[in-house]
């Protein structure tokens, strides 16, 4: 199931209400579990993709050429907009 950890920055996302009220959100503690698992577990597959503390299959969209670059560019633009006028967001 897709998820979005609750974080103070998430209040600035348009989708905030939908995501948090449709059962897709996790607490910060819940959202950190896979990251902690990957940092601490001794039986991981090198280079593996993990979700919900388990080895998982990468979404095919993540493997498409140019998608990562587009995401990076969009993220930079949004962070730049927010950092210039955080009170207006």
TrEMBL record:
This is Uncharacterized protein.
């Amino acid at each position: 199931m897709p998820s979005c950890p609750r974080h103070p920055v998430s209040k600035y996302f348009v989708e905030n209400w939908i995501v948090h009220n449709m059962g897709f959100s996790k607490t910060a503690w819940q959202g950190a579990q896979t990251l902690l698992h990957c940092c601490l577990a001794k039986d991981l597959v090198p280079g593996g993709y993990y979700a919900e503390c388990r080895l998982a299959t990468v979404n095919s969209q993540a493997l498409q050429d140019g998608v990562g670059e587009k995401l990076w560019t969009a993220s930079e633009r949004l962070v730049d907009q927010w950092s210039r006028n955080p009170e207006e967001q």
